[in-house]
Structure formats: structure tokens, C-alpha cells
Amino acid sequence: SQQGEEDPQALSIQEGENATMNCSYKTSINNLQWYRQNSGRGLVHLILIRSNEREKHSGRLRVTLDTSKKSSSLLITASRAADTASYFCATVEDSGGSNYKLTFGKGTLLTVNP
Amino acid sequence: DAGVTQSPTHLIKTRGQQVTLRCSPKSGHDTVSWYQQALGQGPQFIFQYYEEEERQRGNFPDRFSGHQFPNYSSELNVNALLLGDSALYLCASSFSHFYQWNEQFFGPGTRLTVL
């Protein structure tokens, strides 16, 4: 079953604009991760944020985590056409050290128009 | 340094057949996880192998089985294929020494079509 729900399902913006994607989840987590997928191929890891962190930056990416609302957001600043892809959030449930799986949402399809 | 590799890239089978997919982990990684991604959906966890044993399993029937070899490579076997098994099958590898969440690196996937 899917844990996370990304919002929106699809997003179309112009190059240079910022893109914001949101993710909601259901259970207590150890960490939350964001992945990018181009054209239905392999997933590329973007960023990991742990449950005790509230914000993290990596280059043009900014991720926030609100565990009280069970939600996260991914902001891509100054978007480029090459950022066109599907973006997934994935959670690792907090189960005392015996859980190793990623639980993914359905993804947001981002289109950046030149 | 080669990343995670998977073979074959594409595969077409008919209902009732059996299929074997293969994965070689990134150099230095000892853990392999398999995910199924149906069209328009996010990946779903099938199982994870560590030290040649299945360490955790998702909500998949016994038709899905796997194996990990001493060199850490892995196979995913699916028996009695159903139309609904058509999907992209992703392999991910990671390094499991010391308990901490370690990043999983994904391969390009195998696209399985069941007719």
C-alpha cells in the first residue's frame, strides 16, 4: 500500500520559476526521502531528512518536514528544463530498527517548459 | 565505479510463464531490495536480501521469490505470471553495516510485459 500522497499530481511551470511539491504520510517515520525519476526509468536519490530535522538544503533543493502534520515539501528553485521528471516522496517507518523498506507515494509529474 | 545494473532491460512473457530478473549491486554494497512499479504508480517494496537471506518482505504473494548470491548479486523470480505482473521492476542496493538508514541506489529497472 502507498504511504505517501504527493500533491499536486502534475505541475507545469516555466523555466526559472520555483516548483513546490507536497507529500503527506500516515505513520510515524524514521526519515523521509525524495527521489526523481526520468521517463519511467531508475530512481535518483535527491535528499533525505530525518524525523528530528525540520529543514534541509541541497543545491537548488529545499525540503521541509512537519512531523506533527505528517507532511513534507520539496522546493526546487530556479527550475530548468532538465528538472522535468516525476518526483516521489518515500518514507521509512519508525519500527525500532527492524524496518528497511521505502514506502513511496504516487508521485508528482513536473514539467518545466523552456 | 559501476552503479547498480539490471538485466534484461525489457522482457515479454505470456501468462503462466516464469521469469527471472537479475541485479548486480553497486560496488561495496551488501544489501539488495526489489521494488515493483506499475504504470502511473510509485514503487512498491517486494523484499530485501542481506547476507543471502530474505530480511524483510512486502505484501506480495509467494509467486515472488528471490535469491542473493555470495557476491551480493540477486535474482527476482516470478512464477505463474499474471497480466497484473506487468510493471517496471527496480533493484536497489545499499550498505548495511551499523544500524542506520543508508541511501539506496536504484538500477535502471527491467520492464516486464505479460501478454
Notable traits:
heterodimer, A: about 110 residues, mainly beta, 5-stranded antiparallel beta sheet, globular, B: about 120 residues, 7-stranded mixed beta sheet, 4-stranded antiparallel beta sheet, 11 strands, about 50% strand
Give the SSE map.
The complex is a heterodimer of chains A (114) and B (115).
Chain A: E1 5-7, E2 10-14, E3 19-24, E4 29-37, E5 43-50, E6 55-58, E7 61-66, E8 71-76, E9 85-93, E10 103-104, E11 108-113
Parallel strand pairs in A: 2-11
Antiparallel strand pairs in A: 1-3, 3-8, 4-5, 4-9, 6-7, 7-8, 9-10, 9-11
Chain B: E1 5-7, E2 10-13, E3 19-24, E4 31-37, E5 44-50, E6 53-57, E7 64-68, E8 74-78, E9 87-94, E10 105-106, E11 110-114
Parallel strand pairs in B: 2-11
Antiparallel strand pairs in B: 1-3, 3-8, 4-5, 4-9, 5-6, 7-8, 9-10, 9-11
Brief overview:
The complex is a heterodimer of chains A (114) and B (115). Chain A is mostly beta strands. Helices cover 0% and strands 56% of the residues of chain A.
Detailed description of the structure:
The complex is a heterodimer of chains A (114) and B (115). Chain A has 114 residues and is mainly β. In chain A, 0% of the residues lie in helices and 56% in strands. Chain A has strands spanning 5-7, 10-14, 19-24, 29-37, 43-50, 55-58, 61-66, 71-76, 85-93, 103-104, 108-113. In chain A, the strands form two sheets. In chain A, strands 2, 4, 5, 9, 10 and 11 form a six-stranded mixed β-sheet that branches. A five-stranded antiparallel β-sheet of chain A has the order 1-3-8-7-6, with no helix packed on it. The model of chain A has no long low-confidence stretch (mean pLDDT 91). Chain B has strands at residues 5-7, 10-13, 19-24, 31-37, 44-50, 53-57, 64-68, 74-78, 87-94, 105-106, 110-114. The interface between A and B is medium-sized, with 29 and 30 residues.
